[in-house]
Amino acid sequence: MEARLLGSGRWFAWGYGVLALVGGVLAAVVSSGIPSTDDLAVHYAYVRKIWPELYVAFLLLLAAFLNLAPLGLVLRERFGQGLRSELLYAAFLAAGIIGILWMLMQIGSAQAVVRDSAGVDGQTLAAIGYASGIWSGVINWMERGFLVFAGIGAYWTGRAALDQRVLSRGLAWFSLVLAAFYWLGVVVLLVRDAGFPLPEEVGSLFIAVGSLIATVWAGWLGWELGRRPSTSV
């Protein structure tokens, strides 16, 4: 039973990596041309136009996050019982739950805009824009929460792999690099929120690169989890 659980870890890792990559790329491509909110009529018309593609992208990301809790469970079993393993599992569980809530809020907010913004006057558009701005703030913080806990999970994976040599040292260091990119992105955004004149693009760049690293990390981790546990380097 334990061997089957450990072997299933590769599919959870690969499932997360593939779904996150496809969903993230699709969302980035279709939303890259969204006009600014200076003209709400034009902005929301474009959102309605790309909504089918965005909806698919959000569902793919939602499915990706469903893999994180079982992946954390597999890693806990792989590294053995202990405080570090429990923290690792708790981090991936929290990242999965927050990621799912993040995507549900994205879907609900965008769906409401698509449904309510067609054929309305400027005053109604302004009210929709105000409500959407509040939701966007909540959604942004859900994203940051996901990045924090996903970074914690990656960090403890790297530390446990280095100390116990259950996974390769290359994957261990790659896990720490992933955590660093996620956390640097969050820190830059937090510093910017505090009023320091840092461009938002810097934090977004760290997060985007971290997201790409995460797909490679998931593929590498899945390959290692499919191998028999070994104490060799």
Amount of beta strand:
under 5%
Helix content: over 70%
Shape: elongated
Major sheet characteristics: none
Task: Kindly describe this structure.
The chain contains seven helices and no strands. The protein has helices at residues 2-31, 40-65, 68-79, 83-116, 122-164, 169-193, 200-225. The protein has 233 residues and is mostly helical. Helix content is 84%, strand content 0%. The protein has one domain (2-225).
Short description:
This protein is mainly alpha-helical. It is 84% helix and 0% strand. It has helices at 2-31, 40-65, 68-79, 83-116, 122-164, 169-193, 200-225.
Topology:
Blueprint lengths: L1 H30 L8 H26 L2 H12 L3 H34 L5 H43 L4 H25 L6 H26 L8
Helix pairs in contact: 1-2, 1-3, 1-7, 2-4, 3-4, 4-5, 5-6, 6-7
Give descriptors for this structure:
mainly alpha, 7 helices, 233 residues, 0% strand
